[in-house]
UniProtKB/TrEMBL annotation:
Keywords: DNA-binding, Transcription, Transcription regulation. The keyword DNA-binding applies. Pfam families: FCD, GntR. It comes from the Bacteria. PANTHER family: GLUCONATE OPERON TRANSCRIPTIONAL REPRESSOR, TRANSCRIPTIONAL REGULATOR, GNTR FAMILY. It comes from Rhodococcus kronopolitis. Residues 8-76 form the HTH gntR-type domain. This is FadR/GntR family transcriptional regulator.
């Protein structure tokens, strides 16, 4: 089931392999992992490296460690956090389209509420940061850089909510999205190229216009959601044809 580790961080590679087995269903909830010694032999790494990986897996909600008992797999759907979205998006070298759709749904729903909350709480400093972010976005024609500038803009919006919960959720969604920016560059132009809407959203937040911020954020995020959904539909259809 496991493969010897050749390069990279030993504990990180152990973590990655076990995570892949858990998310892929090879290891199900309640299954016991081999002993620390057996795992070290199977992976060809030291026991401290295995111990460190197990600690990371437990922290991620993927396994449960009980003193004097075997380490068992947990149901990640009940215990893990959104930081696993990146690993769930691509499994076995293939994208999971249902996960991709769920990320889009979360991005759209959370983004709208974050914009509304920011409009009720944002101060002059946040407004200044938003204006600067829009100016940077408008000045850069590169579609990949535009996505980076758009993420920076939304980071300031999240800061305007003064909510650590929204901040951590944003971090997880951003980390899942960032590896796809190059592939999605031409698609996301539909959203990140609408500098006018970013300006309108900034104005609504600065004016403490909650309804206006919600309305503009919905329009803006729907542009990217529609464009990305169309791509997912096409790619999913292509995959289905190949499987026939």
């Amino acid at each position: 089931m496991f493969e010897p580790i050749a390069r990279q961080s030993a504990s990180g590679a152990v973590y990655d392999q076990i995570t892949t087995r858990v998310l892929g269903g090879d290891l199900g909830p309640g299954d016991a992992l081999p002993s620390e010694r057996n795992l070290a032999e199977a992976f060809g790494v030291s026991r401290p490296a295995v111990r460190e990986a197990i600690g990371k897996l437990a922290q991620a909600g993927l396994v449960e460690v009980r003193q004097g008992d075997a380490t068992s797999v947990r149901d990640f759907r009940r215990h893990a956090g959104p930081e696993l979205l990146g690993a769930l998006l691509v499994q076995g070298g293939r994208p999971d389209w249902s996960v991709a759709r769920s990320v889009l749904e979360a991005r759209r729903l959370i983004g709208v509420q974050v914009a509304r909350l920011a409009a009720s709480r944002a101060d002059d400093l946040v407004a200044a940061d938003l204006r600067a972010a829009v100016a940077t976005l408008a000045a850069d024609p590169d579609p990949i850089a535009q996505q980076q500038h758009a993420l920076a803009f939304w980071e300031h919006v999240v800061d305007g909510t003064d909510s650590i919960a929204f901040r951590l959720i944003f971090n997880s969604l951003r980390n899942a999205y960032e590896p796809t920016m190059t592939a999605m560059a031409t698609v996301m132009v539909a959203e990140v190229g609408r500098t006018d809407l970013y300006r309108d959203l900034t104005a609504a937040i600065e004016a403490n216009d909650e309804d206006g911020a919600e309305r503009v954020a919905t329009t803006l995020l729907d542009l990217g959601t529609t464009a990305l959904t169309a791509v997912i539909d096409e790619l999913q259809s292509h995959d289905s044809e190949l499987e026939r």
